[in-house]
Every structure is written in C-alpha cells, then in structure tokens.
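Researcher: Structure prediction, please.
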Amino acid sequence: MIQLTIPGKPFGKQRHRTMRAGKFNREYTPKETINYEMLVRELFVVGHPGFVPVSGPLQRIVMACYSIPQSLNKKKRALMLAGQILPDKKPDDDNILKIVGDALNGIAYVDDKQFADSRIIKWYSDRPRLEIIIKEIDLNEHSLIVQTLLRKNFDNPTQTDLPPSPA
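Model: Predicted structure follows.
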C-alpha cells in the first residue's frame, strides 16, 4: 500500500492551453499544473526511496481536504469539520484524480490505466492537503461491490447481469 500526503490547497489538472506561433497553433501545459505534478512526484520519491512501480489492478482513494474560510462562525465551522457540510468547490474531483494519476505514472505504478477503482472524498479541514492511498485491489471486496451494483439493473429490473454465485 502506498500512502502520500500533499500539503496545501487541493489542485486539479488544468486544460492544455493554445497559443499562436506565427501561422501555427502551439499547445502547452500550464506552468501551475507542471509544478504541482513535480511536487507530487518529488514528495513520492522522497517518501518512498527505491520504490519499484507496481503492476496489476489498483484502487486509488484520494481525500481532498479544503481549508475553512476564516469568516465563518464557530457553529458552521464545527459542522464543516464534522462532515455535515461538504465542499462543493473547485477543483472538480476528476481533475484532482487526473493530476495525481499523471504525476505518479511510471514511478508509483506502471501506468494509470491500472486503476479499476478510484474514489475521491472532499472534506473540510484545518489543514488543507491531499491524502492519497494506492493499493492492490481486494478482488473479493471488488466483486461484492460490482455484484451489488449489477443487481440494480435499472433498464430491465427482471433481467440480471450477475455472474453465477460461487458455491
């Protein structure tokens, strides 16, 4: 299992930008994205020296911890810390997963296509950061989740897509 903490405000992958260069358009990655990916890589290498990238199906859990605005009253602040009020702010969850996936590609795992299960949790905290956990998939747990979801066949409730139950 890999655990990694990225201190600071959660950051998401930005879109490529295009600039005009004479008659041609040139695409580039924004500097903030490059710098954040570098930070994630450096923290991983320092925290996991000599790590050999893992292969096989993986699960990724990312917790994005957002800072609480200073202007809020104590009651609202307590609700945020207790998870009764959740962040609905940028960056989008998919952009956070993308920047983490791209940053650790080739150093923590062979390729980010290995992720068969990705989860993101947005939370308020006194300490803004990303908490990242990457682990091999527990096939029994994964099968249970998939079977539960397949039982909810919304298109045709009388038909099931479930594989036969193990004996």
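Model: The radius of gyration is 20 Å.
Researcher: Thanks, that helps.
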